[in-house]
Design brief:
Blueprint: H1 2-23, H2 30-44, H3 49-61, H4 63-66, H5 68-76, H6 78-81, H7 85-123
Helix pairs in contact: 1-2, 1-3
Length: 124
């Protein structure tokens, strides 16, 4: 029951963000707005990370199931994709490489900042 209640909180946040995105004078994805709002709620302490751990663990464990509908949709439009297959593959490959690189540098920066923070505590 706890996972359901905490998941409901996340879904309500995403629903509200989607409504807010509909009122913006420019196109902006509601899901991205929800992640930004959630980020600031976590930073400010309105939502505690320990409260979201069961939901995030559940979603991570079941992530492959979340990719089945989009994959089936892509396969059902395979005849349309054949005409732009090379462009589609290029975008997929380039975006994967960029994502890997940004993730690696984000981890590197995080480790650097954590080590710097620990170094300052040891010197104090």
């Amino acid at each position: 029951m706890k996972i359901f209640a905490k998941t409901t909180i996340l879904f309500v946040l995403f629903m509200i963000s989607d409504i807010i995105a509909g009122f913006l004078p420019f196109p902006f994805p509601g899901s991205i707005l929800a992640m930004i709002i959630l980020f600031f709620m976590l930073l400010s302490g309105i939502i505690k990370t320990k409260n979201l751990e069961p939901v995030s663990d559940f979603l991570l464990k079941n992530m492959p199931l979340l990719f089945i509908p989009p994959t089936v949709s892509i396969i059902s439009y395979l005849d349309i994709l054949k005409s732009v297959l090379w462009q589609f593959l290029a975008v997929c490959i380039i975006s994967t490489i960029v994502t890997f690189a940004l993730t690696a540098y984000s981890v590197k920066l995080t480790v650097y900042l954590l080590n710097k923070k620990r170094g300052n505590k040891e010197n104090a």
